[in-house]
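Z., the sequence and structure:
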Amino acid sequence: MAAYIVLEINTAPERLEEMRAFLHDRMPEAMAFDGCLGVDLVENKEKPGNLLFFEKWESHGHYEKYFAFREQSGVLEAFSEMLTDEPSIRFFDLYEY
Protein backbone atom coordinates (compact mmCIF):
# COMPACT_ATOMS: atom_id res chain seq x y z
CA MET A 1 0.00 0.00 0.00
CA ALA A 2 1.30 3.45 -0.90
CA ALA A 3 2.54 5.67 1.91
CA TYR A 4 1.89 9.41 2.01
CA ILE A 5 4.18 11.63 4.06
CA VAL A 6 3.81 15.32 4.84
CA LEU A 7 6.94 17.02 6.15
CA GLU A 8 6.74 20.62 7.34
CA ILE A 9 9.82 22.70 8.11
CA ASN A 10 10.64 26.26 9.06
CA THR A 11 13.92 27.50 7.66
CA ALA A 12 15.94 30.11 9.53
CA PRO A 13 15.54 33.37 7.56
CA GLU A 14 19.29 33.89 7.29
CA ARG A 15 19.67 30.36 5.85
CA LEU A 16 16.83 30.48 3.32
CA GLU A 17 18.95 30.81 0.18
CA GLU A 18 21.26 28.09 1.48
CA MET A 19 18.24 25.81 2.03
CA ARG A 20 16.96 26.46 -1.48
CA ALA A 21 20.33 25.50 -2.97
CA PHE A 22 20.55 22.48 -0.65
CA LEU A 23 17.15 21.21 -1.79
CA HIS A 24 17.84 21.98 -5.45
CA ASP A 25 20.94 19.77 -5.26
CA ARG A 26 19.28 16.89 -3.38
CA MET A 27 15.70 16.61 -4.65
CA PRO A 28 16.63 14.77 -7.88
CA GLU A 29 18.33 12.07 -5.80
CA ALA A 30 15.25 11.79 -3.57
CA MET A 31 12.95 11.51 -6.56
CA ALA A 32 15.13 8.75 -8.05
CA PHE A 33 15.32 6.74 -4.80
CA ASP A 34 13.80 3.27 -4.99
CA GLY A 35 10.10 3.43 -4.14
CA CYS A 36 9.64 7.19 -4.47
CA LEU A 37 6.50 7.88 -6.48
CA GLY A 38 6.75 11.66 -6.24
CA VAL A 39 7.47 14.69 -4.10
CA ASP A 40 5.81 18.07 -4.30
CA LEU A 41 7.47 20.90 -2.43
CA VAL A 42 5.55 24.09 -1.68
CA GLU A 43 6.50 27.29 0.13
CA ASN A 44 4.14 29.42 2.20
CA LYS A 45 3.66 32.73 0.36
CA GLU A 46 3.07 34.59 3.63
CA LYS A 47 5.95 33.00 5.55
CA PRO A 48 9.03 32.37 3.38
CA GLY A 49 10.99 29.38 4.56
CA ASN A 50 7.88 27.54 5.75
CA LEU A 51 8.02 24.53 3.43
CA LEU A 52 5.74 21.53 2.99
CA PHE A 53 6.91 18.33 1.33
CA PHE A 54 4.10 16.11 0.03
CA GLU A 55 5.68 12.72 -0.57
CA LYS A 56 4.27 9.51 -2.03
CA TRP A 57 6.12 6.22 -1.61
CA GLU A 58 5.38 2.68 -2.75
CA SER A 59 5.29 1.66 0.92
CA HIS A 60 6.23 2.87 4.36
CA GLY A 61 9.19 0.48 4.19
CA HIS A 62 10.53 2.26 1.11
CA TYR A 63 10.32 5.58 2.93
CA GLU A 64 12.10 4.13 5.98
CA LYS A 65 14.98 2.97 3.76
CA TYR A 66 15.22 6.43 2.22
CA PHE A 67 15.17 8.11 5.64
CA ALA A 68 17.92 5.77 6.90
CA PHE A 69 20.00 6.53 3.81
CA ARG A 70 19.68 10.28 4.41
CA GLU A 71 20.47 9.88 8.09
CA GLN A 72 23.56 7.73 7.50
CA SER A 73 24.90 10.06 4.80
CA GLY A 74 24.82 13.10 7.16
CA VAL A 75 22.29 14.95 5.01
CA LEU A 76 19.68 15.05 7.79
CA GLU A 77 22.10 16.68 10.19
CA ALA A 78 23.05 19.37 7.66
CA PHE A 79 19.37 19.86 6.83
CA SER A 80 18.40 20.20 10.50
CA GLU A 81 21.02 22.88 11.13
CA MET A 82 19.11 25.24 8.79
CA LEU A 83 15.81 24.94 10.68
CA THR A 84 14.36 27.13 13.41
CA ASP A 85 12.57 24.25 15.15
CA GLU A 86 11.85 20.55 14.93
CA PRO A 87 10.28 19.43 11.66
CA SER A 88 6.76 18.04 11.69
CA ILE A 89 6.38 14.72 9.94
CA ARG A 90 3.04 13.00 9.46
CA PHE A 91 2.16 9.69 7.85
CA PHE A 92 -1.09 9.08 5.97
CA ASP A 93 -2.93 6.31 4.19
CA LEU A 94 -5.07 7.02 1.17
CA TYR A 95 -8.69 7.51 2.14
CA GLU A 96 -10.88 5.19 0.09
CA TYR A 97 -14.35 6.55 -0.62
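The longest strand covers residues 3-10. The mean pLDDT is 95.

Let me know what you think.
H.
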